[in-house]
Write a structure and sequence with these properties.
Distance between the termini: 32 Å
Structural class: alpha/beta
Strand content: 15-25%
Number of strands: 22
Number of helices: 13
Radius of gyration: 21 Å
CATH architecture of the largest domain: 3-Layer(bba) Sandwich
Shape: globular
């Protein structure tokens, strides 16, 4: 079994070699890249996915494992509704146990003000036929028994699901290969090859792959790769700390969050825990470059983000990370195969303490492992899903802002059709790249 978090010591499952020619090349082996490859291969498109490290080794295996409709941006919700259906289909088709279960997602409310804050999504959910509802204090206590705190109420969506990210995305990659996709791990994309203003290939560390269409789905690394080609998106990466407990009695089968701790039942009998609010931003060149775009989010939640002075060496926005390199020289993507930030010790102490306080009947809470991930964030907390107008044949799907795992198959299906020139079935106006340059005001999506 591979270790978790994944590391460069884990065996390569998809060694290649990469083909010399492919209809589409996908850069990035997270849930978005993998599901896009899967749906392209299903349509008979020759698609090659290159991943600098290991499939799902970064945020796609480090997230909370929630597959939620609840709390989504109104423009994301139709896609995540589709994604929920696709998750069920893919879990059956891949033939592996990925821990997929319909156990619901619940947001716990401390006050009437919190409950009033749920009203906007209740209206959105009703328009789309999602089963989200408000719970009274007594109903909340009955849904999640054994809590030491009395909550004012809650918002819950029983049809929401959970899965094990570190199992699910590699399983989908194996399914994509069975459908005909080529996946190559330990193979960094260095630069695009251009001819007369359009893409003619991708230079990788293993050589050139000729292609006319490229999808950049590199998560926290997307902005760095795009900037090398004169394409700027205001993407930053924030660190989120997560832990897994030793097996515990079941107090709740689903996922829930209050202002202190988020928790989700795991397939192994423990719980995934994370701080209920707040992440950390390593301040780097992009933080200053895009600061003005993030002012609305800062004013909306001024204390929700911790600032750290500088990213460790090799991180995408570290001061020492090169912004320019040639196709025949080692790129930043090869220098750091897997982005593996250290978890916050303070955050780990907090979730251990808060989960024990919330459920004192469980006794001592012991963490068996902990990790952190770098979430690719956008100023308005919704992704970029678009074609790049300045480079013919280039597509981008990034900045999932912590929402990528659950919505992954929906975005993958949408992008696969976008690349093929088919109708995508959803309005992607909200996710266009130009919203950050055409004078449009920043319209914040939900923070969770």
């Amino acid at each position: 079994m591979p270790s978790f978090p994944f590391s460069e010591k884990d065996p390569i499952q998809f060694p290649g070699p990469a083909p010399k020619r492919s209809d589409v090349v996908i850069i990035g082996g997270g849930v978005i890249g993998v599901t896009t490859a899967l749906y392209l291969a299903e349509k008979g498109v020759a698609v090659t996915l290159v991943e600098k490290g290991r499939i799902a080794a970064e945020q796609s295996s480090r997230n909370w494992g929630w597959i939620r409709q609840q709390g989504r941006d109104a423009d994301e919700l139709p896609i995540v509704i589709e994604a929920r259906r696709l998750w069920k289909e893919l879990a059956q088709e891949c033939g592996e146990d990925i821990g997929l279960q319909q156990t619901g997602v619940t947001y716990l409310a401390n006050s009437a003000r919190d409950m009033n804050g749920f009203d906007d999504f209740i209206k959105i959910a009703a328009r789309h036929g999602v089963d989200t509802r408000l719970l009274s204090s007594a109903e909340t206590a009955a849904l999640i028994p054994g809590m030491a705190r009395t909550f004012h109420g809650a918002m819950t969506t029983p049809s929401d699901m959970r899965a094990e990210p570190s199992l699910a995305v590699p399983a989908l990659a194996r399914l994509a290969v069975r459908k005909g996709a080529a996946i190559v791990e330990n193979c960094a994309a260095r630069t695009l090859d251009m001819s007369e203003g359009r893409i003619s290939g991708v230079w990788t560390e293993a050589g050139l792959i000729e292609t006319s269409s490229v999808l950049v789905a590199g998560g926290a690394w997307s902005s760095l790769f795009l900037r090398r080609h004169g394409v700027s998106i205001p993407q930053l990466s924030v660190r989120s700390t997560v832990a897994a407990t030793e097996p515990l009695p079941e107090v709740h089968a689903g996922a829930a969050v209050d202002d202190h701790v988020a928790f989700r039942r795991r397939q192994d009998g423990g719980y995934t825990l994370a701080p209920g609010g707040g992440s950390a931003l390593y301040v780097g060149p992009d933080s200053f470059r895009h600061a003005i775009k993030y002012l609305p989010a800062l004013f909306d939640n001024p204390f929700g983000l911790r600032y750290l002075p500088a990213a460790p060496s090799g991180f995408p926005d570290a001061w020492s990370t090169p912004r320019h390199w040639a196709a025949d020289e080692k790129s930043p993507f090869e220098r750091m195969r897997i982005l593996n930030p250290a978890p916050s010790r303070k955050g780990l102490r907090s979730v251990e303490r808060e989960f024990a306080r919330l459920f004192p009947g469980l006794g001592p809470i012991r963490l068996k492992t902990a990790w952190a991930g770098m979430i690719d964030a956008m100023p308005d907390v919704v992704p970029v899903v678009d074609r790049v107008q300045s480079i013919d044949g280039l597509f981008v799907a990034t900045g999932m802002s912590g929402h990528g795992f659950g919505i992954g198959p929906g975005i993958g299906r949408v992008v696969a059709d976008l690349i093929q020139g088919n109708a995508v079935g959803h309005d992607l106006t909200r996710f266009r790249m130009s919203r950050f340059s055409d004078g449009s005001p920043i319209r914040l999506g939900p923070a969770l």
